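Batch manifest line 169
LIGAND: shikimate-3-phosphate
JOB: complex structure
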Amino acid sequence: MEQKKNVVLIGMTGAGKTTVGISLSYRLKMPFVDMDSWIEKKAGKSIPQIFADEGEEAFRALETEAARKLGEENGMIISTGGGVVMRPENMEHLKKNAIVVYLNRSIEDIVKTLRMEKRPMLAGKTDTLYPMYEKRHPLYLSYADIEVVNHSDFKEGVENVYRALADKL
Ligand code: S3P
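JOB STATUS: finished
ARTIFACT:
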């Protein structure tokens, strides 16, 4: 039987991966899973708490486990954490059976809506977003099958991803 592909959303923290992913899942009638929520369930605590108790490396190990497990799924919309591209192994797992969509949103727009308390990597400073973007943007591009620019209007973002996926699923 032919396997239905996953749709994997990648992009910076605050780019709208989860919001767009949930709407897309209604639109495409595909189940949705958020990798960070998967990790939180597995660890039994929130992401900031994992960082505080066990450090970033422990979080990254859980992230890789999530990528391995979710890479085996089919027909799912998967939103990822912004740092998922930092380990090539993660993307190998996730790209096995997927169309990867890079949600590219400007840092200026991200700063307007970002909830800092949920993002331990930023250590309370939006300045950290700029070097992070410089480092990650080329990686997002290199793994993406489709790049969609996500402006402030999320509805438009969903529509643009939906249209870009139309002939690929
Ligand atoms: C991270 C982004 C977060 C989360 C973790 C690490 C990162 O996800 O996975 O805090 O390295 O940028 P979001 O992209 O949903 O904020």
